[in-house]
Amino acid sequence: MLLKNKTLGSALIIAGTAIGAGMLAMPLTSAGIGFGFTAILLIGLWLLLAYSGLLFVEVYQTAKRKDDGVATLAENYFGMPGRIISTVSLFVLLYALSAAYMTGGGELLASALPANLFGEEGAHLKTSILLFTIILGAFVVIGTNGVDGITRLLFSGKILVFIIVLAMMLPEVVPMNLMEMPLDYALILSAGPVFFTSYGFHVVMGSINSYLDGDVKRFRTAIILGTAIPLSAYLLWQLATHGIFNQNEFVTILKENPTLTGLINATKTLTGSDVLSRILPVFYSLALITSFLGVALGLFEGLNDLFKRAKIPANRLSLTMATFIPPLAFALFYPNGFIAALGYAGLLCAFYCLILPIGLAWRVRQQHKNLPYRVAGGNGMLVFALIIGLLIIAIPFLIQAGFLPQVIG
Q1: Would you report the helix, strand and coil content of the chain in percent, each value rounded to 5?
Q2: Most buried of 21, 78, 79, 269, CB within 10 angstroms?
Q3: Under a CB-based contact definition with an 8 Å cutoff, are residues 409 and 258 in contact?
Q4: Burial letters for 362-396: b for 16+ Cβ neighbours within 10 Å, e otherwise?
Q5: Angle of the 35-60 helix axis to the 378-400 helix axis, nearest 10
Q6: Alpha-carbon torsion (303, 308, 310, 315), positive or negative
Q7: DSSP states of 23-48 as a string?
């Protein structure tokens, strides 16, 4: 019964979409902040983004059809400009992320296969990217049921590997290291947009609503449970990494090698475990795959919604080609072409995951006074969340202008 529970499956899709490969590098971002303030930041952003996810539940009560996408909701309440803005922001974000995941997944597959199995190094990598996309893309084409099934399996593996990693690292934690204060309190603000994207599950809201047949109670439960899992994982991961390094060690590591590899090597040195250095890349792979599935599913369903609106034939073939060919082309021929777009992913994520649901909820409350479910906090909470969202959007520009410090690492 539990294995067939759609609410649990939806929660795992949400959690799997949120917990991406970037989680492993989170300690690098928070190196100069210290564990205490990092935990406060993570909890605060979790409350904010779980709240915005619940706003989608409130808005979806007014959907005419259970399979309506977010862009359709935006058009219902803001007209064609709302559809265009929400669609463009979503697709640029999802295509950029998809291309990045395809490239990363292809590199992982290429390194796992015998060297030059498919020819020279370039051909080997391109073939690996293609295989990665075809194999995992098949589950997305099947639909939410397909992603649900493989996500349960991969998520279980990811949790198992994570537990093993924590079991090796937590005994090495030094309590005094957890008491470190920020090197610069302004770094807390600078790290906000980076951590914000770690809760970016909102791209699958339309798919989850359709999968749960518009059931408000189950939708709410899936969001609360699905976001609580990443929060717990992030806190434990930060506890383990901040606990084994003091800030001076962190800064030294970043100066020598400001990458995930540097962190893995340092962890291996401190724990004396070769197994740990081998297991961390496995976790990285599982995190990347589950994130790719969630992002690709959100893109597939978003295109389905767009095709219906534009009266374009929305069959499996056309949707599959539109979902995978554009990011695959960039991943194969312009692997660095999406770096600039990814640099703005935080801005797009802030708009789509926070500004848009706030705007939709505001209009819904104006037009529908007696909805069965309304998120707590009233309109005052909407205004507060909007201010936070605008601040998150402004932070990268403030860093660029020199008003805020660059995040370490």
Answers
A1: 80, 0, 20
A2: 21
A3: yes
A4: bbbbeeeeeeeebbeeeeeebeebeebbeebbbbb
A5: 130
A6: positive
A7: GGGHHHHTTTT-HHHHHHHHHHHHHH
- Residue 17 or 122, more confident: 17
Q: Which secondary-structure segment (H or E) carries 376?
A: none
pLDDT in tens, 163-197: 888 888 888 888 888 888 877 788 888 888 878 87
* Residue 327 falls in which region: left (phi positive, over 0), alpha (psi -120 to 50) or beta: alpha
Burial of 182 (0-12, 13-18, 19+ CB in 10 A): middle
Q: What whole-number distance in Å separates Cα of residue 93 and Cα of residue 185?
A: 30
Report the greatest alpha carbon distance in the chain: 64
Sketch out the chain's domains with CATH numbers: 6-400 (1.20.1740.10)
Q: Which of 55-64, 110-119, 295-304 has the highest mean pLDDT?
A: 55-64
- 76-117 pLDDT, tens digit each: 899 889 888 888 888 888 887 888 788 877 877 777 777 766
